Amino acid sequence: MIERIQNLLRANGIKPSHHRIKVYQYLIEKRNHPSVDMIYQELVRNIPTLSKTTVYNTLNLFLEKGIAVMITIDENETRYDADTSLHGHFRCNGCEEIYDLRLDTSALEWESLDEFEISESHLYFKGLCPRCH
Amino acid sequence: MIERIQNLLRANGIKPSHHRIKVYQYLIEKRNHPSVDMIYQELVRNIPTLSKTTVYNTLNLFLEKGIAVMITIDENETRYDADTSLHGHFRCNGCEEIYDLRLDTSALEWESLDEFEISESHLYFKGLCPRCH
DNA sequence: CATAAAATTAGAATGATTACAAAAATGAAA
DNA sequence: TTTCATTTTTGTAATCATTCTAATTTTATG
Questions:
Q1: Separation of CA B64 and C1' C2 in angstroms?
Q2: Residue B106's pLDDT is what?
Q3: CA–CA separation, A50 vs A123, rounded Å?
Q4: Terminus of chain A with fewer CB atoms < 10 Å: N or C?
């Protein structure tokens, strides 16, 4: 597992330090679209010297190298996702859970965007999830 | 014009004060998806006593009453739009312009969302616009 | 005019994020 | 192993958008 992460990081031009591996592992194991603080609070339990700045630095590096994406579904905290494939999100206003929305990518090939060069696509909804509805 | 705005505000349960009318007028005339600061800088030229807090209060009231929506396409500043119809946005990484994307709303009726009650939909892209491309 | 309610203001507080410079860890060469 | 340069990490301070709060001004009403 760790080794697979190391290879993935290296393949994307990221030196696989212990902290970086742990942050990436958190993202792919929890799949919970965490904020910086959520990652920090979890990891600091095992890495007492961890600095929140390191989590910021690491995530910004992941974004830059394209192995994670930023989600702006929460107005005051950035969320992160290691699933960089084209998909949407749903944030429940009741339980605050963020769901992944697998979607027919053909629906996202818009007509009038011919001349536009798209580098990022963001799609999300808010409302109530089945459990809270 | 002013009168039409007054009626619209009143119809949505908002007392049409001078400041509120001006903020709303800015939104519908400029159609530029402004930040709070952009609105403030423009209006303060004619209303020297204007406070930025008032712009914040006013926009939050508009959101609450449903006559404007928040756009999170800019990572560090919230943008606003008085067009509350379902449409997307495109932010050019070159000129920073935010374009409206009229889109086939049928494409946004996703399959697996049956049990979810949607109250907000957000769709945006980033990249290069035709001029900057 | 008087008075209560609502709107506006200014400044302080909050909180997420970034900047920065020092300290620690890493890795290669001798 | 030791040295030395490079990279990573750290802690603190700075930044900046937004909200809070309490005072002031404006508005509407009797």
A1: 34
A2: 63
A3: 33
A4: N
Token pair for A88: 């949407």
- Phi/psi at B118 (5° precision): -90, 130
Q: Which DSSP letter does residue A16 get?
A: -
Which residue in chain B has the smallest CA separation from A129? B116
CA distance B45 to chain A (A): 30
Contact with chain B for residue A85, Cβ under 8 A: no
Helix pair angle (B36-43, B18-30), 10° resolution: 110
Report pLDDT for A108: 60
Instruction: Give residue A90's identity as a one-letter amino acid code.
Output: F
Q: Is B42 exposed, middle or buried (0-12, 13-18, 19+ CB in 10 A)?
A: middle
Q: Are B75 and A72 in contact (CB under 8 A)?
A: yes
Reported as a single tens digit per residue, the pLDDT across A83-129 is: 999 999 999 999 999 999 987 766 666 556 778 999 999 999 999 99
Summarised one tens digit per residue, pLDDT across range B79-106 is 999 999 999 999 999 999 999 998 776 6
Token pair 């290691």: residue? A82
